[in-house]
């Protein structure tokens, strides 16, 4: 193997977009012929903006000219907290390794590069969403499950008007 780790630039948007679609298919167990055109269009727009303004860093890994792996980290701000007075956070996403390159510590090294990028920006809060197959990698790196956060399901609009919200007074719109 002749691996080359490359920090992505605007010239890499197409391969980043393609790997994003592959990651989403794999993570959501979608058929490989699923139409991802909308996701690709929106991902392309995201990368175009976020790579230019520095709110996203991505790494691509090649074995000579063959794509082997990718990973990204998005940066955003929340209100300051006691543990994070700057309110700066990072979210690792789009970790993907082609099947021929798995179990060779490639993803681990991509993770090192992404976390180092966050450290260089002074960010102390880094999180991610782990698939079953990725959990071992992230735990080995030092990530721990979060017990203090919750998420409202995607179909939360269905909760409005349900018995969960009866008696709740909503402000006028």
What does this protein structure show overall?
This protein is α+β, with helices and mostly antiparallel strands and 173 residues long. It has a single domain, classed as Gcn5-related N-acetyltransferase (GNAT) (Aminopeptidase, 3-Layer(aba) Sandwich). The protein has helices spanning 13-27, 37-53, 106-120, 132-141, and strands spanning 3-7, 56-63, 66-77, 88-97, 126-128. Strands 1-2-3-4-5 form a five-stranded mixed β-sheet, with helices on both faces. The protein is globular and about 55 Å long.
Taking pLDDT < 50 over at least 5 consecutive residues as the criterion, the unreliable ranges are none
Q: Tell me the radius of gyration.
A: 18 Å
Strand content: 15-25%
Counted by DSSP, the helix tally is 4
CATH hierarchy, class: Alpha Beta
State the helicity in percent bands. Answer: 25-40%
Series of H and E elements: EHHEEEHEH
Mean pLDDT: 89
C-alpha end-to-end distance = 59 Å
Physical arrangement of strands within the biggest beta sheet: 1-2-3-4-5
CATH architecture: 3-Layer(aba) Sandwich
Number of domains: 1
Q: What does the main sheet amount to?
A: 5 strands, mixed
Please state the structural category. alpha+beta
Global geometry:
globular
- Determine the CATH superfamily: Gcn5-related N-acetyltransferase (GNAT)
Number of strands: 5
Might you state the CATH topology name?
Answer: Aminopeptidase
